[in-house]
Amino acid sequence: MIPPSATRIAAARRLARRSLRGRDRRFLAEGPQAVREAAAHRMDGEPVLTELFATEEAAGRHGDIVDAARTAGARLHLTPEDTLASLARTVTPQGLVGVCRFLDRPFADVLAARPRLVALLAHVRDPGNAGTVLRCADAAGADAVVLTDASVDVYNPKAVRASVGSLFHLPVAVGVPAPEAVAGLRAAGVRVLAADGAGDRDLDAELDAGTLSGPTAWMFGNEAWGLPEATRALADDVVGVPIHGRAESLNLATAAAVCLYASARAQRAPGGCRSVTSSG
């Protein structure tokens, strides 16, 4: 490892700003899990991880990650703790911060892959929620996550951290206008369902009727006020998660997990789209 120059530190620090992330098409991945996934990931045959800043203690504790970063061709910098803390966005940094190339895919590529389960984030503004929904989509076996142009930057450090490495696991398309996203998914044979507590259809009823077994995209809205009427109207149907107890509502990430797993279960049942077309 070599110590980082002031220029390299300044270049990494500026990736905290969305405009400069977009200009450089680079983002920061913080912590062992995110850096491990970044080191293992390739985009169009090229490594995603380009630099790794590590404290001496973290480099010794996570030698396997350092070795993986070297194998990926990343430039390695042994970094003083106070300097690394200036790059991190957590109260207690874990000693590893990677610089990664953007890895979003064109929306056309998502459609060309004939997705069967998609999370569509429309008007999601909280980066922690966006990252958590991405993680839920990954866990449920979704084929892609699409963020509209009204949603938060998926490369926000808080979103990257909340995804716990899932950002590197499945295709992500960003900046797609909601009407274009819905029209494209529908043309690809995907039914678009808006998740909304005021929906006129019920998730339990959808499961009982077997209507979730086909290709489905779940559209999720803003944390506080849900989906705007104009966006909700784009969907094929509006579906609510039933509240069987006395809770007023579910938060965005919890509702997303319930909806995505409902579709995942239906699609893997006999006759579901995954049981017919693949074993995955």
What labels describe this entry?
4-stranded mixed sheet; 280 residues; elongated; alpha/beta; 7-stranded parallel sheet; 20% strand
Walk me through what this model shows.
With 280 residues, this protein is an alpha/beta fold. 41% of the residues lie in helices and 20% in strands. It contains 14 helices and 13 strands. It has helices at residues 6-13, 18-24, 32-40, 56-61, 63-71, 81-87, 107-112, 127-139, 157-163, 178-187, 203-209, 229-232, 252-268, 273-277, and strands at residues 26-30, 42-43, 46-47, 49-54, 75-78, 96-101, 117-121, 144-148, 172-176, 191-195, 201-202, 216-220, 237-240. The strands form 3 sheets. It has a 7-stranded parallel sheet. It has a 4-stranded mixed sheet with strand order 1-6-4-5. Strands 2-3 form a two-stranded antiparallel ribbon. Strand 8 (144-148), helix 9 and strand 9 form a beta-alpha-beta unit. Helix 3 packs parallel to helix 5, helix 8 (127-139) packs parallel to helix 9 (157-163) and helix 8 packs parallel to helix 13 (252-268). It starts with 5 loop residues before the first helix and ends with a helix. The mean pLDDT is 93.
